[in-house]
C-alpha cells in the first residue's frame, strides 16, 4: 500500500512536471507574423530545470514570453507538490495503524446510522425461526440429514481404504488388496449417490424456507396500519422481500448443509487421528482450534458487514425505485446527474464495506494457509521422528497426513460457511423484525355487521394528528353530521384537512380524540371490511393496477359481477366510449402510465359505482376531467343521488366550486377546523371564505 501510494505520488509529480513544460511552451505566443528565434541571453540561471524556463518577461522577434512570473509559479508548484507529498505520507503513516488488526479502519460504526439497525438476532434464535417456517415439511430436512450423514461417513472412510489398498498391494497381500478395493468402490458409489440426494433435499428445504419467509413477510406487511407505510419506503420494503430473503435462502441449502458435512467429516478425521497417534493428533487439534478462533472472529465480522450491506442495498434500491418512478420529472428537470450522485452515495458505502470484507478475507486466508502448512510440517517432523524411532509405520504416517489435511480443510470449510451463515443471519434480522410486527387490530378484532348501511355519518368532536407528525394537529374539534341520502361538499384551502377527514371516515387512521358514528354505531365497533365494501371511494390521484380495464373496474368488488354490469358502470362514469376506442376494448392491458389522468379518474368512478355503495366519497374526483366530462359527472352525481331505489350519502371534496353548487350542504374548512357551513346561497350571503373563493374562481374563469 505504501508503495502504491508513493508510486501514485511519483506519477503525479512526473505528470505535473510534464504539464509545467507544456505550459511553458504554450506561454510563447506569436505577437506578430514573425519567426521564432531564441537568444541565450533570454535564458539566464543555468541550473537544472530552470535552464529551460525563461526568466524575464520579454519579446523576442515579436513573440511575447511570459518568463519571470512563470518560474515563480513553477517553484510554487514544486513547493506545493512537495508539501502534498509530505501530507500524503503523513496521512499514510497516520492511517497505517488503523488498518492493523483491531484498528479503527475495520470498524463499521461511522457508516451506520443507528436507525437503520434492527435488533440483533442470535444464531440459535434465527435458526429456530427458520425451523418454525420449514417444520411442516420436516421430512425433507430429515431426509437431507440422513443423506448427509451417510455421504459424510462414506467420504471420510475413503482415505483409510485408499492407503490400505496401496500398502496391501505394496506388501503383495492380494486378498486384502481386493477386499479394500471392493470396499473403496462401494464407498465411492454410496458417497456419490448420497451427496446427490443431500444436495437435492437441502435445495428443496431451501426453496420451502424462502417461499414461506416471503409469504410470512408479505402478509405481515400487508396487514400493517397505513401509518406504518408513512414511515417505510417502498424501495426498502421490496428490498427486504427480494434480496434479504434471497440472502437468507442460503442458510439451509448451502451454509448449514456444508457446515454439517464438514463438521461430521472433521470430527471423524480428528477421532481417527487421535487413534492413530494421540501426540500428533493433539498437535493438529491445537492448530485447528487456533483456526477455529480466527474463524469465529471472522464470522462475526462478516455478519456485521452483511447487515450493513443489506441496509445500504435497500437504501440504494429506494433511490433507484424513486428515480425510476419519477423518471418524467427527472428528465424534465434534467436531474439525471443529481440522481446518479444520490445513487452513487450508497454504492460508495457498499464499496467501502466490501473493501473491508475483502481485506478481512485476505487476513483469513493468510491465517488458514499458515496454519495449514504448519500441520504438514509438524506431521512430517514429528511423524518422521516417530518412524525413525520405530513408533509408527509409514502407512500410519501417510494416513495421518491424509486425515490431518482432511481435518484442516474441514475446519476451513466450516469457517468459510460459518461466515456465510453469519452473513445470512445478519440479513435475516430486519426480515424477522418485520415479520414479528403485529397486524393492525382492524384485522384481528371482529366487529359488528349491520343488516344494512343507511349512510348516516357523524363526526363528533374529532381531533387528529398524523402519527408521523405528532406535534402538528391536522384536525381540531370537528363536528359534522351527514344525513342518509345527503350530498355534502367539503371545500377549503389546500392543506386544510379535507382529505384527512375522509381518511378517518375510511378508518385508514384512528382519530386522536372524539369519535365517528356510522348509522349511530361507533366506527371502531363496526366490521371494517363489511363497511368498506359498502363505501365507494375515488381518490385524488386514482391508481390503476397492471391488468385489463375490465378487471380494474371490478377490482375489490365482492358481488357477482357480469361484463354487462361492468359496462353499465363504465357508461355511468362516461368511460365506455374511450374504452371501446382502445385496441382491445375492455380487455386492454393498462397500467398507471398508459391512460390520461381524466381517463383514470373515470375508471375509478366506474369502479366506485359498480360497488353500488351506500356512501360515495369523491376526493376531488373531477380535478382531472375536461369540461364536458365534468359536466357529465355532475349528471352522474345527480343520477346517483336521485336514484329512488338506493339512497346514497355522497361526500365530495372539491376545489372546483362549480361542481358542488347543488350540494345539500357545503362545509368550509380552514386550518383543520370547520369555519362555515350552509348551502351555496347561504354561504355567498355570509360573505366569508367560501364567497371569497367563489369570487376568485369566477374572476379566474373570466
Ligand atoms: N400521511 C401524512 N402524514 C403526515 N402528514 C400528513 C399526511 N397526509 C397529510 N398530511 C398533512 O396534513 C395536513 C392536511 O392534509 P390534507 O391532505 O388533509 O389536506 P387537504 O385539505 O385535503 O389538502 P388538498 O386540498 O391540497 O388535498 C397537511 O398539512 C398535510 O401536510
From TrEMBL:
Q: Which Pfam families match?
A: ABC_membrane, ABC_tran
Q: Where in the cell is it found?
A: Membrane
Output the superkingdom of the source species.
Answer: Eukaryota
The record places domain ABC transmembrane type-1 at 142-423
Against Gene3D superfamilies, the record matches this protein to:
ABC transporter type 1, transmembrane domain, P-loop containing nucleotide triphosphate hydrolases
> Where would you say this protein principally sits, based on its record?
membrane
GO cellular component, as recorded: membrane
- Domain ABC transporter span(s) in chain numbering: 457-696
> Transmembrane residues, as ranges?
139-163, 183-209, 270-301
Which residues does UniProt call coiled coil? none
Q: How does it sit in the membrane?
A: Multi-pass membrane protein
State whether keyword NADP applies.
Answer: no
Alphabetized InterPro entries for the sequence: AAA+_ATPase, ABC1_TM_dom, ABC1_TM_sf, ABC_transporter-like_ATP-bd, ABC_transporter-like_CS, P-loop_NTPase, Type_1_exporter
* Keyword annotations of the record: ATP-binding, Membrane, Nucleotide-binding, Transmembrane, Transmembrane helix
Q: GO molecular function terms here? A: ABC-type transporter activity; ATP binding; ATP hydrolysis activity; ATPase-coupled transmembrane transporter activity
What is this protein identified as?
ABC transporter B family member 26, chloroplastic
Amino acid at each position: 500500500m505504501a508503495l502504491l501510494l508513493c508510486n501514485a505520488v511519483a506519477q503525479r509529480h512526473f505528470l505535473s512536471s510534464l504539464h509545467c513544460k507544456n505550459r511553458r511552451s504554450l506561454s510563447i505566443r506569436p505577437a506578430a507574423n514573425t519567426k521564432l528565434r531564441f537568444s541565450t541571453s533570454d535564458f539566464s540561471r543555468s541550473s537544472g530545470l530552470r535552464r529551460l524556463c525563461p526568466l524575464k518577461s520579454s519579446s523576442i522577434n515579436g513573440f511575447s514570453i511570459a518568463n519571470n512570473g512563470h518560474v515563480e509559479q513553477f517553484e510554487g508548484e514544486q513547493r506545493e507538490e512537495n508539501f502534498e507529498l509530505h501530507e500524503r505520507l503523513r496521512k499514510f503513516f497516520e492511517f497505517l495503524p488503523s488498518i492493523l488488526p483491531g484498528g479503527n479502519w475495520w470498524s463499521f460504526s461511522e457508516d451506520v446510522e443507528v436507525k437503520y439497525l434492527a435488533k440483533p438476532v442470535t444464531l440459535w434464535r434465527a435458526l429456530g425461526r427458520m425451523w418454525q417456517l420449514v417444520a411442516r415439511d420436516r421430512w425433507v430436512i430429515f431426509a437431507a440429514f440422513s443423506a448427509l450423514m451417510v455421504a459424510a461417513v462414506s467420504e471420510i472412510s475413503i482415505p483409510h481404504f485408499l492407503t490400505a489398498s496401496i500398502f496391501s498391494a505394496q506388501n503383495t497381500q492380494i486378498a486384502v488388496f481386493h477386499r479394500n478395493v471392493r470396499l473403496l468402490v462401494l464407498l465411492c458409489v454410496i458417497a456419490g449417490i448420497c451427496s446427490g440426494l443431500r444436495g437435492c433435499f437441502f435445495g428443496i428445504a431451501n426453496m420451502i424456507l424462502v417461499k414461506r419467509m416471503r409469504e410470512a413477510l408479505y402478509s405481515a406487511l400487508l396487514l400493517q396500519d397505513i401509518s406504518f407505510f408513512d414511515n417505510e419506503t417502498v424501495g426498502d420494503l421490496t428490498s427486504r422481500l427480494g434480496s434479504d430473503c434471497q440472502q437468507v435462502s442460503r442458510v439451509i441449502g448451502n451454509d448449514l448443509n456444508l457446515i454439517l458435512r464438514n463438521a461430521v467429516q472433521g470430527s471423524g478425521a480428528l477421532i481417527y487421528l487421535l487413534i492413530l497417534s494421540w501426540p500428533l493428533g493433539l498437535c493438529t487439534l491445537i492448530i485447528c482450534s487456533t483456526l477455529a478462533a480466527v474463524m469465529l472472529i471472522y464470522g462475526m465480522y462478516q455478519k456485521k458487514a452483511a447487515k450493513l450491506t443489506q441496509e445500504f442495498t435497500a437504501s440504494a434500491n429506494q433511490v433507484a425505485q424513486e428515480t425510476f418512478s419519477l423518471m418524467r420529472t427527472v428528465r424534465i428537470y434534467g436531474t439525471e446527474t443529481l440522481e446518479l450522485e444520490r445513487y452513487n452515495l450508497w454504492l460508495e458505502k457498499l464499496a467501502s464495506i466490501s473493501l473491508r470484507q475483502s481485506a478481512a478475507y485476505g487476513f483469513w486466508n493468510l491465517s488458514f494457509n499458515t496454519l495449514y502448512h504448519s500441520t504438514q510440517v509438524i506431521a512430517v517432523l514429528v511423524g518422521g521422528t516417530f518412524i525413525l524411532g520405530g513408533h509408527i509405520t509409514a502407512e500410519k504416517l501417510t494416513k495421518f497426513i491424509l486425515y490431518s489435511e482432511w481435518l484442516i480443510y474441514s475446519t476451513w470449510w466450516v469457517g468459510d460457511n460459518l461466515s456465510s451463515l453469519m452473513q445470512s443471519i445478519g440479513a435475516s434480522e430486519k426480515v424477522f423484525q418485520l415479520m414479528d410486527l403485529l397486524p393492525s387490530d382492524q384485522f384481528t378484532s371482529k366487529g359488528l355487521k349491520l343488516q344494512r348501511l343507511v349512510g348516516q355519518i357523524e363526526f363528533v368532536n374529532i381531533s387528529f394528528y398524523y402519527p408521523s407528525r405528532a406535534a402538528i394537529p391536522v384536525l381540531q374539534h370537528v363536528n359534522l353530521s351527514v344525513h342518509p341520502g345527503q350530498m355534502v361538499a367539503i371545500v377549503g384551502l389546500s392543506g386544510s384537512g379535507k382529505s384527512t377527514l375522509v381518511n378517518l371516515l375510511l378508518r385508514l387512521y384512528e382519530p386522536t380524540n372524539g369519535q365517528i358514528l356510522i348509522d349511530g354505531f361507533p366506527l371502531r365497533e363496526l366490521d371494517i371490511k363489511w363497511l368498506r365494501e359498502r363505501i365507494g371511494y375515488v381518490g385524488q390521484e386514482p391508481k390503476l393496477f397492471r391488468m385489463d380495464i375490465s378487471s380494474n373496474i371490478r377490482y375489490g368488488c365482492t358481488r357477482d359481477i357480469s361484463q354487462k354490469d361492468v359496462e353499465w358502470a363504465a357508461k355511468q362514469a362516461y368511460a365506455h366510449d374511450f374504452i371501446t376506442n382502445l385496441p382491445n376494448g375492455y380487455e386492454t392491458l393498462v397500467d398507471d402510465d398508459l391512460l390520461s389522468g381524466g381517463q383514470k379518474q373515470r375508471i375509478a368512478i366506474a369502479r366506485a359505482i359498480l360497488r353500488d355503495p351506500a356512501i360515495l366519497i369523491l376526493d376531488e374526483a373531477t380535478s382531472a376531467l375536461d369540461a364536458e366530462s365534468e359536466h357529465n359527472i355532475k349528471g352522474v352525481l345527480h343520477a346517483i343521488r336521485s336514484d329512488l331505489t338506493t339512497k346514497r350519502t355522497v361526500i365530495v371534496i372539491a376545489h372546483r366550486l362549480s361542481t358542488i353548487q347543488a350540494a345539500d350542504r357545503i362545509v368550509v374548512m380552514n386550518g383543520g377546523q370547520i369555519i362555515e357551513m350552509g348551502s351555496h346561497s347561504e354561504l355567498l350571503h355570509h360573505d366569508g371564505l367560501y364567497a371569497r373563493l367563489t369570487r376568485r374562481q369566477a374572476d379566474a374563469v373570466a
